[in-house]
Amino acid sequence: MKNIQRVLVILLAFLPFLPLVVKAQIAYSPVIDSLIYQATPVTVSLAVRQLSGDTTVIIDGTPQTITTRSYQYNSIQNKAAQFIKEQFESFGLQARYMDYSASGRNIIARKPGTRYPDKEFIICAHMDDMPTNAIAPGADDNASGVVAVLEAARILAPLPSEYTLVFAAWDEEEIGLVGSKAYADSAIAGNEQIMGVLNYDMIAWDSNNDYILTIGTNLQSQELTNSYQDVMKIYTPEFSWTYTSIEASDHSPFWHKNYPAILVIEHYPDDFNQYYHSQQDNFSNLNVTYFTRMVQAAVAGLASLGWDCRLYFEHQPVVSGIGNSAREAILSVYSFRPIAEGEHQPRLYYKVNDGEFQYITATTVTGNQYTFEIPGQADGSMVTYYFAVQDSAAVMMGTYPDGGRGISPPGTQPPANFFTYYVGNAVTEEFCSPSASKPIPDLGTVRDTISIEVNGGIKDVDVSVNITHDFDKTLNIRLTSPAGTSIDLSSGNGDNGADFTGTIFDDEAAVSIISGVAPFTGRFRPEQPLSTLDNGLSSGDWILSVTDSIVSHTGTLDSWCITLEYYDLAVDVPEALQKQSFTLGQNFPNPADQQTTIPFSLEKEAKVNLGIYDLFGRRISTLTEGLYQRGTHFINGNLSQLKPGTYFCRLQCGAVSQTKALVVVR
Fold this sequence. Notes:
Immunoglobulin-like, Aminopeptidase, Jelly Rolls
């Protein structure tokens, strides 16, 4: 564990200078949550109408109409470019044209980062449209994407960001991604450090109001995809999504230069705009409510990344088990924002069974590691807990597991999922010898064994004996545990008295066996404490030895029993909570030819096995197996050896699995 932590510290120390290689949770920010609602149905509708010729705009101080954004009508297209540039400048941004050819012109605006000015996140969309007519509104394709860029610029321009933010409108996407390719080529030639690209292309069509979108992603963009999904879970939770590997948009040139980039598009291809590339792609056909939420997610995504609203949590969950002592829970927190101290320092919230959550703060803090002591609980208790952390400036907060809310103090609203452990129940059971009634030889020892199969953790031991003997003072009685530990119960007690009748050796008894009187009926403390055996294991052979030490005295070990109070080591954890929470996504593309990508998501760290099976349930190949962290993972599947037909992808996680059909075509 220490080596792992040391590696993480090294990685995190250099993270500003690397792509997103460490899985970080996007933290909730009340500031961002408030800002995104500056993008309203009114503001996005006006902007998309202006870009699609549905209303006039002011360009260079005069009213004009952008009737088309087709490259074949360059003079009108230039109106659109000038309008976008002037909008950027009106927000206080430095904007420029990137003229990469005689006919091609990108519009670029930059907001330098305060901490990492040489590292940038890009939000972008293509501004050109189809068909190649003088009247081609292109409201959805792709005035809608440009509006996401403009609204993000308008809302975020007045506020500082740790990373540089780049707002880009690409030209000539419709004829081969020309504008974005020119920028990506320039970026790689200039060794620009692009941390991530958010590309929006057609985000205003949702004919059935199901709030499904599609994310275009690849393996190198996995962390960026996870981050954007986290953003939507926090700020636009009504969205769900599918995946695609399509390259027919402006994220693709960045993929080819090994930059992380994603495409955000309306549900593709299942609910795709029927007016695509036609003169009917106008404002009246858009779903403004869906469109507004897509823009708000875009603003939240860029702000979360550019403001470095990330937290990395490392925690080994408390395990279920026996014992009523306090449980130690250690949390390591990594962030590039200072963690709050004092009143708003990290908290651990816990509840017992169906009680109310209460919080504790760390008993010790060592660097970025916080150690909490969860109070001990009664046997049979279920303890549920989560962590909450905020930064010192109250810009962001996160819970672990994620999904909670509340800031200053953090985490007052719990997440939907928790860490849970159980305190084992203590069971009391008597085990009696089936083979007693053995003679005690003169000047000899009799031994008798009770074999216990129950695998428990010892909490308390009592021993009861019945012995017939005419001179107790000559007897030594000893118990030996399965671990080989021997306890003297009685040695030379009873003076001239006879017998042990209903004698119980019990550490909690009021009278010691030394002070007792034969026949010792009742409870007595043994000469050596039976508590020495506590916390050992119950299973195995327990041996009672009775030794006669003086000549001419005999007797009988009539019977004996052990009463064990033990913790059931098979802690009763409900089956539903033993299962890992995971989701196997549909492979894409599907049907597939030579290659396909299979996504799966884990709510927490888990060991998984992903394989391809034929229709008879026979495993064809193993795609991956091993330990994976929380988040969404994308596995590349090589299908070149498979014949055309239907197969199944199966994700095995513990004792449960999920299966999806996979179709191979040639």
